[in-house]
Each structure stands twice: as structure tokens, then as C-alpha cells.
Write a structure and sequence with these properties.
8-stranded mixed sheet, binds adenosine-5-diphosphoribose, single chain, binds P-hydroxybenzoic acid
């Protein structure tokens, strides 16, 4: 087989890149190890920044998002006895949208612009430092395949082969001493906008997917077994940390349909390119989920990468491709800092000095316009290309 861009991975980065390339008149073929059903059902992120929404809308992917997504003006920050609302629209002129990654993924599949080979095995990248790179894999029917391309886009997340093939000059990493226990519950959210809670027992987050589905998280120690957290224990701990009973606010529990433990990590590898291999999304960087940046960063990467590849392959202009890694990394580092900052401000470490600094920082972002605006500007997201 032959295509212009061989895309490894059919997550949001890979599928959106294929869609953007198609609109720019560049052919792409996507290779994915998992089945289409598995990819569609994975529970992932849920918040879109305004620049992500604008991009999706500008390429014909905004209809269901506008109809079924929910626009939020801001978030709540909760500390024992206090809850503060930060209004991003007032502070930074931008809102965010609650719309699950799984929904973005469904819209991309429905758009039908990407040719995807699901259930590919033994995916390998070859000759990425030449102008004729190729990918070999075993297709779903067990046949050996070779896909020749002008460019390979590594969109295969943190466990795919691309990041190692990219032979990074540098890797930056921070592992946090806590994880999240996440639940999905068939119950109407107990809040109109997300609540991020600091509590001496640990961080908690009340998020949502729709009017009838809530998504909530608790800070737990690394290595936690979800089996040690029966449903009643989860709801009781969420109620304590989120401030049930404070000023008449109530957390309504409901049937839990999914329970999982997520480790927290920051990771960046540079450069995001080696020869004709370009990395985008989780393949190049991981952020802890506290700032809701992972999905938005993947979208911003492929917005830049698609423009660079259209220029390279259609206009024979290598300049945007040559500056892709530096351009993408500016935003990556901003979001890496913001995610680290939100994470370390809200998770308890057991250290009293840290706790007092956290509370002082939270007081600053909830009472000073300058502090609140900094959080709002980063959370609601900087323009693509920042
Ligand atoms: N060959 C082909 N595909 C692969 C391989 C491989 N060897 N290994 C992994 N993949 C696929 C995965 O199955 C997955 O579908 O690559 C895809 C990567 O998708 P994501 O992990 O969703 O990463 P990305 O598209 O960059 O999106 C980032 O996902 O993890 C969340 O919070 C993160 O929201 C962010 C978003
Ligand atoms: C989610 O809804 O899954 C979610 C929302 C905000 C975050 C992290 C996760 O910061």
C-alpha cells in the first residue's frame, strides 16, 4: 500500500490528523492495534477548551458538540468550608465545553474521512530518516502488510512504538506520589460546573459527561486496588472532600458503572520529530489530568502538524514542518506547567508546610483578580499556535 501520511494510532490525535489532512488534500492511512469498538468505548477526558471547540467546528465536527455538549463558564474551587466560583468568561473571555473524548472520537468516525486499519499487529516503523519511510504490520486477517509513505505521524500514545523510534535527544519526567480513583455513575451531576476540591484527606473532583452521567475522582495512594473501595466508601469519601452539607449543598450518589485507578505523570520528550517521523499527542507528552489538558494538547498538536504536512507535501514548503517541534513544544510546556501547578496545588502530600502553601495559593487564586485570571487563561486555553 502507498499513502502520503502513514498515521500510527486511531485515538483523537490520529483520527483528527487524518481528517485535517483529508481536508487539506493530503492522503492518509491510519493503523491502529485495537478494535474500532475498543477505541470507541474507552473512557477518557471530557473537557474541551474554546480553541479546541473552534477548531473542531471549523472543520465540520461541531454540530453534535454544540447540540449535545455543555458550555461551562468556569469551575468551582472547594476548600473545607469554602466554595469559590471562577468565571473564565469574565476573567479571560473564554469558556470550556463538557464533551467526552469518546464523543469526539465518534464524530471523527462518523465523518468517514479516515481510512483506518484496526486490529493491526506487529506495527513497525522503518527508514524514518529517509524520504521514503514505511510501516509494516500484520492486518486483522493475519496478512503481512507494508505501507509506504512520505511521512509517518506517530499518534500512538504513550505505549506505542513511535516515541522510541523518534530517538529523543531529551526526556523530561515527573512521577507523582498519588493516583486517581475514577468513577462513572448513572446519576445527574450534583453541580452545574466542575468542582475541584482541596481537602486534608486528599483531592476530589466532581465532573460530568451529561445530564444523567457523572464522573468523579478521588486522590488515592499509588498502587491502590479498586477492590478496596466499595461503592459506599467512595461516595462517603467524595461527600466529605467535596463539602456535602456545606451551605446546604448535597452530593447525590448513584449506581457506579465503572471504577478505575489512574496513575499521574508528567512527561515530555524532545524534539517531536526525527527525519520524516513527527510525533503528536500522548506519543510525545503526558500531563496529569488535573488541568484537563491531555486531549486539548493532542488537538493543538495535530492542528499545527496538519498545516505543516500540507505545506510540505502539497506546496513543497518545508518551513512549517521544520518549526513544528519548536512551535508545538511552546504550548506543550505551558500546559505541562499548568497541569503540574494545578496538581501540586490541589493534592495533599502529608507535609504540613506544603499544605499551608497550597491553601495560601488557593486563597490567592480565589480572591485576587490577577491570580484568578492566570488560572482562567490557562484552563480555558491559549490560542492554537501560542
Ligand atoms: N500501533 C498502532 N496503534 C497503536 C499502537 C501500535 N503499536 N500502540 C498504541 N496504539 C494506539 C492506541 O490503541 C490508541 O488508540 O494509538 C492510539 C493512541 O491514542 P490515545 O492514547 O488516545 O492518544 P492521543 O490520540 O494522543 O490522545 C491523547 O488521550 O490519553 C488521552 O488524556 C489523553 O485526552 C488525551 C488523549
Ligand atoms: C473528566 O471529566 O474526566 C475530567 C475533567 C476535568 C479534569 C480531569 C478529568 O481536570
Amino acid at each position: 500500500m502507498r499513502t502520503q501520511v502513514a498515521v500510527i494510532g486511531a485515538g483523537p490525535a490520529g483520527l483528527l490528523l487524518a481528517h485535517l489532512l483529508h481536508r487539506g488534500g493530503v492522503d492518509a492511512v491510519v493503523i491502529e492495534t485495537r478494535s474500532q469498538e475498543y477505541v470507541a468505548a474507552r473512557i477518557r477526558a471530557g473537557i474541551l477548551e474554546s480553541s479546541s471547540v473552534e477548531l473542531l467546528e471549523s472543520v465540520g465536527l461541531g454540530a453534535r458538540l454544540r447540540a449535545e455538549g455543555h458550555e461551562h463558564r468556569g469551575i468551582y474551587l472547594q476548600m473545607p468550608g469554602e466554595r469559590h466560583h471562577l468565571d473564565f468568561v469574565d476573567l479571560a473571555g473564554r469558556s470550556v465545553w463538557v464533551y467526552g473524548q469518546t464523543e469526539v472520537q465518534k464524530d471523527l468516525v462518523a465523518a468517514g474521512t479516515a481510512v483506518v486499519h484496526y486490529e493491526a499487529g506487529e506495527v513497525q516503523l522503518h527508514d524514518v530518516e529517509t524520504e521514503r519511510p514505511y510501516v509494516t504490520f500484520v492486518d486483522a486477517a493475519g496478512r503481512a502488510q507494508r505501507l509506504d509513505a512520505d511521512v509517518i505521524a506517530g499518534c500512538d500514545g504513550s505505549f506505542g512504538p513511535s516515541r522510541a523510534v523518534a530517538a529523543p535527544a531529551q526526556r523530561f519526567e515527573r512521577v507523582y506520589p498519588y493516583s486517581w480513583l475514577g468513577i462513572l455513575a448513572d446519576v445527574a451531576p450534583s453541580t452545574d460546573e466542575l468542582i475541584y476540591a482541596w481537602h486534608p484527606d486528599g483531592f476530589a473532583l466532581h465532573s460530568m459527561r451529561s445530564e444523567t452521567v457523572s464522573r468523579l475522582y478521588l486522590q488515592v495512594p499509588n498502587g491502590t486496588d479498586p477492590a478496596d473501595w466499595p461503592d459506599d466508601r467512595i461516595w462517603a469519601e467524595l461527600a466529605t472532600r467535596l463539602g456535602h452539607g456545606q451551605d446546604g449543598w448535597k452530593l447525590t450518589p448513584g449506581p457506579i458503572t465503572d471504577k478505575s485507578v489512574l496513575p499521574m505523570r508528567s512527561y515530555v520528550q524532545t524534539p517531536m520529530r526525527r527525519g520524516r517521523l513527527f510525533l503528536a499527542g500522548d506519543a510525545a507528552h503526558i500531563v496529569p489530568p488535573t488541568g484537563a489538558k491531555g486531549l486539548n494538547l493532542a488537538i493543538a498538536d495535530v492542528a499545527l502538524l496538519s498545516r505543516a504536512l500540507v505545506a510540505l507535501l502539497r506546496e513543497h514548503d518545508p518551513r512549517p514542518a521544520d518549526s513544528y517541534s519548536d512551535d508545538a513544544l511552546r504550548r506543550v510546556w505551558r500546559c505541562t506547567h499548568f497541569s503540574w501547578w494545578m496538581t501540586t496545588m490541589l493534592h495533599t502530600s502529608g507535609d504540613e508546610f506544603d499544605a499551608q502553601l497550597q491553601l495560601s495559593q488557593l486563597r490567592w487564586v480565589t480572591t485576587s483578580a490577577a491570580g484568578a485570571t492566570g488560572l482562567a487563561e490557562n484552563y480555558a486555553g491559549l490560542p492554537i499556535g501560542f
